[in-house]
Amino acid sequence: MAGIRWPLVARRIHKWLALLVGLQVVLWTITGFYMVAVHIDIIHGDHLVRAAAPATYKLADLSPPAALLAEHPGAREIRLQRLLDRPVWRVDTAQEAILHDAASGQRLPPLSPEEVKRIARAIYAGSANIVSTRLLTTAPLEMQTRKPPFWQVEFAGWNRPTLYISATTGELLARRHLLWRIFDFAWMMHIMDYEERSDVNNPLLRIATWSAVAMAVSGAWLLLWSFPKGRRKRVA
After folding, report:
1. Which of 196, 199, 147, 200 is nearest to 174 (CA)?
2. Nearest CA to 91 among 104, 75, 67?
3. Residue 188 and residue 36: Cα distance in Å, rounded?
4. CA–CA dist 229, 62 (Å, integer)
5. What angle do the packed helices 6-37 and 178-191 form, to 10 degrees?
6. Rounded to whole angstroms, how far apart are CA atoms 191 and 179?
7. Hey, what long-range contacts does 113-120 have (CB within 8 A, 24 or more apart)?
8. What is the pLDDT at residue 131?
9. Closest Cα to residue 88, out of 99, 78, 98?
10. What number is the average pLDDT over the span 27-37?
């Protein structure tokens, strides 16, 4: 092993590792900076929706939930909630969520586009106009974790604020906007999961991480070796 020129070996390892993972290290830096520079509440879109005003109802004026159990014997949960300006019973079964008018007990039909627009306007905190309303049966990339169908309501604005609303219950499922989409892309590049964008322990990330560690170690060794004092001691 005496004939091995270790500084040359370390220099070559450092050079090739820098060529292979240097770009990814730059991407880690840029994407990491974006993710810490933009406040997480902004990314979540908390500023896009207004808090719902509390509502009170007289139970004596509502249909008894026991009647709904007879109609839906497999119901897992029945709870009272509000849809626009009226109370509704929400019945959760193993297959779906069903809404009944809380006053009459009648099952409600699917939401119409106009009802969805009213719900979206009531939720949205801004004053921009709605530019599109679509019922989606296939989830877009930014809603891969949600099962369709649901409504996509997009408002005018530079950041393309978009609300996703349940097609059966009218509840807000998610809010998306340009800064969120940039964050999602940055997260994908940061964790190197280019399909699901969720696996923070994928093989590609592990390889890149250990390669970056080896690059840093070899670079540190070369730095220490380059000091004149170290060379003089070796010659002596």
Report:
1. 147
2. 75
3. 15
4. 88
5. 160
6. 18
7. 115/84, 115/170, 116/151, 116/153, 116/165, 116/170, 117/153, 118/84, 119/83, 119/84, 119/165, 119/170, 120/151, 120/153, 120/155, 120/163, 120/165
8. 97
9. 99
10. 94
How far from 84 is each of 53, 55, 111, 161, CA to CA, in Å?
A: 11, 11, 11, 21
Which pLDDT does position 20 carry in this prediction? 75
pLDDT higher than 90, residue 66 = no
pLDDT, tens only, 156-214: 999 999 999 999 999 999 999 999 999 999 999 999 898 888 888 888 888 888 878 87
pLDDT of the residue at 34: 96
Answer left, alpha or beta for residue 80, where phi above 0 means left and psi between -120 and 50 means alpha: beta
Higher pLDDT, 39 or 3: 39
